[in-house]
Write a structure and sequence with these properties.
With 231 residues, this protein is α/β, with parallel strands linked by helices. The protein contains 9 helices and 8 strands.
């Protein structure tokens, strides 16, 4: 199973050096802040390196942006695209995400495309139309994509009540959509994942792994979740 560790805007240099040592023998995907990417380039490590974002532009005069080609040259193999926080705090759109996915694909970076769900949609969008709308941002003819389904109202919490019946419905819908379009894929889940619920979560149909953030900052949580999904 895939395990993605999204470190978000956490940890400093010394913390990162310790963190790299913690995960160096684990088959995970780690997403540090941009300045720390080079701290995760040890050749004897088992983890894979990913970025928390990339630019929708391939190159040019876009101060502060980081292009896919530059990331790939640093050994980045995965890129998180479309996280709900990018929508909420930075106003990014589905067109932005489409461009980012395309840039990732053009540079042999595997996109981890986030499909989110608000609490309002959870209550009212029974046909999952917003889920499908987000999937339509995926370009055709891609080689492989990872879809990360993350209910935005559960992100960052480790003490939550997950609606497993609803989660199963969403995961099946996403998988059916991808299969209908002949897209090679994996589907992972994020939102309140912890040692308290990983046993039940990993039994949900169509789940190929998990993306964690709060739990990714806790050594004991990482060890428990990693060992649990690899048994």
């Amino acid at each position: 199973m895939i395990l993605v560790l999204n470190l978000k805007m956490n940890l400093t240099k010394n913390n990162i050096i310790e963190y790299e040592q913690l995960i160096h023998d684990k088959n995970v995907v780690v997403l540090p802040q941009y300045p720390y990417l080079l701290f995760f380039n040890r050749r004897d490590s088992k983890y894979s390196l990913g970025s928390q974002d990339l630019s929708k532009y391939s190159k040019g005069s876009y101060t502060g942006e980081v292009c896919a080609k530059g990331l790939r040259s640093l050994g980045v193999r995965y890129a998180l695209i479309g996280h709900s926080e990018r929508k909420e705090y930075f106003g990014e759109t589905l067109e932005d995400f489409r461009m980012k996915i395309q840039n990732a694909m053009d540079n042999d970076i595997i996109p981890i495309y986030c499909v989110s769900e608000s609490y309002e949609d959870y209550q009212n969008d029974k046909d999952l139309r917003n889920i499908e709308t987000q999937l339509e941002a995926i370009p055709n003819y891609l080689k492989y994509i990872i879809i990360a389904f993350e209910p935005s109202y559960l992100i960052g919490s480790t003490d939550v009540n997950i609606d497993y019946e609803h989660l199963n419905k969403v995961m099946v819908r996403i998988k059916d959509w991808l299969i209908e379009r002949h897209m090679n894929h994996s589907i992972i889940y994020g939102g309140g994942v912890s040692s308290n619920n990983i046993n039940e979560l990993k039994t949900i149909d169509c789940i190929d792994g998990f993306i964690i953030s709060s739990s990714a900052l806790d050594k004991e949580e990482i060890e428990y979740i990693y060992n649990n999904i690899n048994n």
